[in-house]
Amino acid sequence: MTQSTKTRSVVAGVGACLPEKRLTNADLARIVDTSDEWIFQRTGIRERHIAGEGETTSTLATEAARRALSAAGLAAEDIDLIVLATSTPDYTFPSTATQVQAALGITRGAAFDLQAVCSGFVFALATADKFLLSGSHKRALVIGAETFSRILDWKDRTTCVLFGDGAAAVVLEAREGAGSTADRGVLTTHLRSDGRHREKLYVDGGPSTTQTVGHLRMMGRDVFRHAVGMVTDVITDAFNATGFGPDDLDWFVPHQANERIIDASADKLHIAREKIVKTVSMHGNTSAASIPLALSVASADGRIKPGDLVMIEAMGGGFTWGSALIRW
Ligand code: UT7
Question: What domains are defined for the chain?
Fold first, then answer.
């Protein structure tokens, strides 16, 4: 009798790149009417990294990709797919993914951007996973990269204190698994969108409307109100699809927007607080980069190990929201 196998998208390596410049809450208090106490109490953020001269979304993404390739023991020419999640591309076009592809010296396969704001990494991972499962591609770089500092209104204290810059990447490789949830790799992904919520979190410019880049605008309290419910819905979907529950998780790696949202989501789902990976204090909200940055921190410090069950989730502008359950 022949045994059936199933292709899985296995995480082969992860890498990150943060701009050198750090901006603390105290630094921000010199720019707008705010305080370290307000920012930390309401969000859990202490500092964030800000891109300097010559640093762009593609330069940060390229360095993160190089580090992920090195962690995976692979060369750039092993990659045949790049899916890059960003809302702050270098240019309106061509895509930032193609800039990264060129910088890495890759001339085969496909590279494209994907835009789902803070949920971008989950959407990009789910997309790359489906390409690998189809058999059309073998090894993907999935990148979350942002320079939100360039679309912030630095006079608006309700938004400029929340965001930071950075990039991180994972290498996904198609490997054969036994077809059970004990396999390494992406086990399930769940994506949702609801465009009726545009005005709660948006950028007030764009090529087809104002012909400007625009600035980020957010009704923070409304976003907060929706976040916990949306996040818990897609995590429940992942549990239902796999038969796993909160006690089975080794690590919960949420989008890092606000520590209060993270804790409330974990509590609602009965995920133990010690299983949460938090980087929001160091990075702020780096939108599509926040989850892979957190994955890179927790794998570099030895918390996330091969075989661990890792739940990622995000919610952001659109609204978009999604989850993925990964056997590391
Ligand atoms: O990643 C995409 C998803 N985005 C999010 O998840 C963000 C979701 N929202 C949030 O994280 C929170 O709503 C915020 C952190 C943005 C705000 O926290 P909040 O507890 O909802 O505060 P608030 O907006 O209700 O504002 C409370 C007060 C207001 O003053 P009044 O009206 O009560 O007098 C604000 O004007 O805090 C004031 N405020 C500030 N004070 C000092 C707003 N921003 C600041 C600031 N410093 N930076």
Answer: 6-177 (3.40.47.10), 185-327 (3.40.47.10)
Regarding the beta carbon of 196 and ligand 1, being less than 6 Å apart is answered: no
pTM (two decimals): 0.98
pLDDT at 4: 82
Closest CA to 16 of 165, 201, 196: 165
Distance CA 307, CA 327 (A): 6
Pairing type for strands 165-177 and 185-193 reads unpaired
Q: Give yes or no for residue 226 CB within 6 A of ligand 1.
A: no
* Best of 24, 87, 221, 261 for a ligand 1 pocket test (most atoms within 8 Å of beta carbon): 221
Distance (angstroms) between ligand 1 centre and the Cα of 268 equals: 22
Does the Cβ of 108 fall within 6 Å of ligand 1? Answer: no
Residues with catalytic annotation? Answer: 118, 255, 285
Is the CB of 223 within 6 Å of ligand 1?
A: yes
pLDDT recorded at residue 1? 52
The C-alpha atoms of residue 75 and residue 85 are separated, in whole angstroms, by 22
Cβ-count burial 6-29 (b if 16+ within 10 Å, e if not): ebbbbbbbbbbbbbeeebebeebb
Contacts of 235 (CB under 8 A, 6+ apart): 265, 269, 311, 313, 323
37's CB contacts (< 8 A; 6+ apart) are none
Phi-psi sector, 59: left (phi>0), alpha (psi -120 to 50), beta? alpha
Instruction: Report the residue among 40, 42, 117 best suited for mutation to probe ligand 1: largest number of ligand atoms under 8 A from its CB.
Output: 42
In ligand 1, the atom with minimum distance to the C-alpha of 287 is 1
Is the C-beta atom of 157 inside 6 A of ligand 1?
yes
Q: Write out residues in the chain with pLDDT < 50, as ranges.
A: none
- Residue-wise pLDDT for 139-184, tens only, equals 999 999 999 999 999 999 999 999 999 999 999 999 999 999 999 9
Identify the pLDDT of residue 136: 98
